[in-house]
Specification:
single chain; mainly alpha; Rhopdopsin 7-helix transmembrane proteins; 63% helix
């Protein structure tokens, strides 16, 4: 597997979302459509992936419910994140309140797209699935910028909630979202081929897409946890919040292991009913919850000079 290669991921990782983009790339090319074999041969029943070794059939195929486990977990996660957003908004005096709220909103927005793009609900190769997957990719890339921005705000380099903090946040969020959206659409639709697919589309390779959906999230997460551990232990001398962040980091790693290691095992063991995506979503939402708890434990909910404090 070379850098930027998706072929192995799309074959061995059930419900790997970004494979939706490559399916369209192959199906629209008459000379490459023959590469869609096995479970991918029929677009109306094909699961997420490119000739996957195991995949959840599209909803309605042989009474398939689609990726029902992850659909349910995404819906429940939306409820949980809504609660976090409300609680965050109530902590008026907390440092980084607006920035954390923005991150939670981006994560909330990504969940319905995840529900659809890897839920085996829409036909593979359809324009609707491609566009929704591209938006999902943009939201994921933006989410990790929002996560990193929260760590930078915690250093108090600039004052939180002010124009000096929010303008760079919104500008970079727009650039990252727009850039990733363009790359994703270029991979699937071949609009310009500038940042899209490889010159040999049968390789299922796109370095820009790999960077924005795999490498960038990993780098941003590492820097976030590193900065927060330094702030909590090195500057605040607090142990309890550090435990929240360490556990959040562990759960984030477990979520990725569930995607890439448990997915195929669960898919085969369940007869193509579930895969590792729902476990990954549980761990990802739990990670967000622990990030919220870590932030809550190092901030004040109200101003100390408030007469009702």
């Amino acid at each position: 597997m070379s850098f930027g290669d998706f072929e192995s991921l799309c074959t061995n990782t059930p419900s790997y979302t970004w494979c939706n983009l490559f399916y369209r790339q192959l199906s629209e090319n008459s000379t490459l459509s023959s590469l869609l074999t096995g479970l991918s041969a029929n677009s109306s029943t094909a699961p997420v992936g490119i000739h996957p070794s195991c995949g959840i059939p599209r909803v309605g195929t042989d009474r398939s419910l689609g990726n029902i486990a992850n659909i349910i977990v995404c819906a429940l996660s939306m409820v949980a994140v809504t609660g976090m957003i409300i609680l965050t908004e109530r902590r008026k005096a907390a440092v980084g309140r607006v920035e954390l709220r923005n991150m939670l909103i981006v994560y909330f927005a990504s969940l319905p797209f995840q529900l659809i793009t890897n839920g085996s609900l829409l036909e593979q190769g359809s324009t609707a699935l491609v566009v929704l997957t591209a938006i999902h990719a943009g939201l994921v890339a933006t989410l990790f910028w929002a996560l990193l921005a929260n760590a930078l705000i915690s250093t108090q380099v600039v004052e939180d909630g002010t124009m000096s903090s929010l303008v760079p946040f919104y500008v970079l969020s727009s650039l990252i979202f727009g850039g990733t959206l363009y790359i994703s659409l270029d991979v699937a639709l071949g609009i310009t081929h500038t940042l899209g697919p490889s010159s040999h589309p049968n390789e299922l390779r796109s370095i820009p897409l790999f960077i924005m959906t795999s490498l960038w999230p990993a780098i941003a997460a590492i820097f976030y946890f590193g900065i927060m551990i330094y702030i909590v232990l090195g500057m605040l001398k607090e142990v309890r919040p550090a435990l929240y962040y360490v556990l959040a980091g562990v759960l984030f790693v477990f979520s990725q292991l569930a995607w890439f290691l448990l997915g195929k095992v669960l898919c085969i063991g369940s007869g193509s009913k579930v895969d590792g995506s729902f476990i990954a979503t549980i761990f990802e939402t739990a990670t967000v919850g622990l990030v919220f708890l870590g932030w809550k434990s190092i901030t004040e909910g109200v101003w100390k000079d408030d007469p009702y404090y």
